Structures
1.
Amino acid sequence: MFFHIILERNMQLHPRHFGRDLRDKLVAKLMKDVEGTCSGRHGFVVAITGIESVGKGLIRDGTGFVTFPVKYQCVVFRPFKGEILEAVVTMVNKMGFFAEAGPVQIFVSNHLIPDDMEFQSGDVPNYTTSDGSVKIQKESEVRLKIIGTRIDATEIFCIGTIKDDFLGVISDPGATS
Amino acid sequence: MSIEPFNRLVKLAARAFYDDITKGDNPSKNTRSDNRGIAVVVLDALTRRQWVREEDLAKDLKLQTKQLRRTLRFFEQEKLIAVDHRKETAKSAKIYNSAFNDNNNYYVHSANGNGNGSSINNGGNGMGDDKVKMHTHSYCCLDYAQIHDVVRYRLHRMRKYLRDQLDDKNKIQEYLCSDCGKKYNALDVSRLISMEDMNFHCERCNAELVAEMDNAGEGAGEGDDNARKRSREKYNDMLNRMEVQLKPLVEQLNRVKDLAVPELGSLQAWEARALAAARAANGGSGGDPRANQGFGTRMPFVGEPKIEVAISGVDDTGGSIAAQNGNEPIKVLPPWMIKQGMKLTKEQLGELKEEPMDGSLDPLGSSDDKKKAVTEPEDSKHVQEEFMKAYYAAYIKREQETTVAASDAHLSSTERLVGEKSKRGDNDDGEDVEWEEEAPVDENTSGNFKVDLNVEAGVSEEEDEDDIDWEEG
């Protein structure tokens, strides 16, 4: 699920950036530092949408670095248990398959794949129904439900299932476009 | 076409799902707001009515309007009933009353007897001092089609939830290292994946992991496993109990599945149909509701309009009065309309005169269905066919009644306290309603009044049920 929230961060800025465009430099550094990171509490920071406020800088003794407390608005993505996501399959093996929904990696183990789908090893390992009408392989798009998350300080990993109504390969062409 | 199986469905569902609910956020503020069991009473009452004004229903059930409204709103949210609000003057209320009287004559009679009927009659009497004041009135009736779906959906969700729990559908897969016995679960696999063969390898000994089987873990006897086993048992038990306790409901659903759903239509449509039928029956004098009130009772308007028109004026005295007035020739009933529990004149039977339908179809003799069927082989062929159909319908209904009676006993035994409450309420209601419904029957025996078919069908069945309920209490 996506959230638009305000976060705060202390930014250290090298003295060489002090000048007319100090603020721009600060924002650029903030984006570089923060975007794409993951925190266990808030999830993945997808994008910074604006700066709320920049506090007073504090000069560090000895180094000359200045610390600014910056409040910024950002979009975060955090997966939840029970959430339905659409994801792209990245790898298939006999234990199941891995998929990615944006920054989050999801594993679907083979007992959470419908029973009528069998693992086919070979050049392109895949899961296929007995009649061959549905195939899950690398680059397939699937709709899955998250049934468990492991959230570390810097990493979020999910396990999902496609063994439920309306889950599985997204075959509807309208849904993918 | 029959509304009866659906009414049975509603009653069963009411007892199964709405017996112990308490509406409102403060369950026991005072005794007056204690409305456990009211839901069942209200739903039962609605099965005996069609579109009914909330105030009238409240009066009928001797409930406070507020309390009833709360219950009804709950049912509206549950999508069991259809509700229509409209602003109306005393005059337009009359339209409803005239329609209402036609359909629920028994009810109006008794209400008058109780001295409670004043509001109903106001529509007619108050015409003189025609007030332009607008009042918002709410009407409600059961939405049979939707009830059918709601009940089925509810059962489906219950079953699905329990099955999902049983299947451990959302269980997290565990993996075991065959060499060193270290366990992992699916959440760890992101760091176990080996790029060489795309399989999972143990962090410690780099052996390939195998998925742990469900029943293999049973021997381990860990607390975790035991807990899972216990919850499995719990859900299994719950599922079994659900199947047993809701069996009558499921059976009724299956029976009802292929039947055409009785469609009451919107309030306006219903009124229009009722009025049209009333006019047809009374030779155009249907404009005045008072005139209708004393006259014929009519079939409930549960089917297509054309059928209802055919049925109107079905009653013997109603028909004969119309005939005396010379307003309208008596209608000949088509054979498929002739059912158990109808009193028919010769004219209505039309060319079937010669056949002793009248006696054999005595509404009060409905208890010996079976004998009748056996003793009537000498009837003319096609009439016999029609009669057999009607007989089988009646027979199936009786069978259902017995099963349902048993099921009622079962259902209400689940919640003794609440059941008692509801029974007391039911009792009141039952007495009230029975009295109302019996009134025309008694009068019928004295030959002055007509029999509402609806009532005929209802009485015996009603009594059955109420009897059972009381035994329980």
2.
Amino acid sequence: MYQKSPTQEWASSVVRYKKFPGSWAWLLHRITGLGLTAYVLVHINTLASLQEGPEAFNAKMQVFMQPHWIFAAWILFGLVIYHTLNGIRIVIIDFGKGAKYHKQLLYGAVVIGLIVFLWMGYIMFFVHTDHDFLSNIVSFF
Amino acid sequence: MSYKYTGSRGSGSMSWFLQRISGIVLVFVMVGHFTLMHYNPEMGHLYDRVYERMQNPYYQMLQIAFVVLALYHGLQGVWNVYRDFKFPSWLNMAVLSLLIVAGVGFGALGIANILHF
């Protein structure tokens, strides 16, 4: 009979395990946290070009002003805003009485997060660039 | 040498507490960071704007604190995730060492970026 490897067993148990809203909040917090930590390391490394002088830094930053990088930065902001709002939720749960209404806190965080995310997208694509939103999206793909 | 459960003294309550405190501080610094860097496209993307800000030693101190806190919070978080799984103790030591080296190395690079001005 076919035997699952320990890794397959673990993976299927993760999939099968019933996920409540709090489980999704926990899982997303970890995934966004790992992503943001990786980004912080890349970010510090990129800013090392400050030590090479104005030309090197400005040339590097010019790359990140291209539409597909602005789009990537917007997605990154999505990770930041989720991790921030859910982090505040965790602090309220741990230090306050948040455990009694942790689901409501999550729904509130998602609604506020989506509004701030879209607002930031408006700033990045409409206010801060010469391109319009649609051409940014098209050039990304 | 191995990393294993060391009794109640090593329960992780201090790292739990510090993760919350550093997180709370980071929320405030992040709001300032995003407002300042993205108020207009030039703020974070032109050398001259960075140079002007970095002339203020208090701003430099804030940036150093930001680098240290962000790295601590992030790498401690990676360690928290890792410790939820069971791995051989040699791997625990290797991962912990790697995280510490990454923290010290990238911390030094980040602080060097700031003190360059």
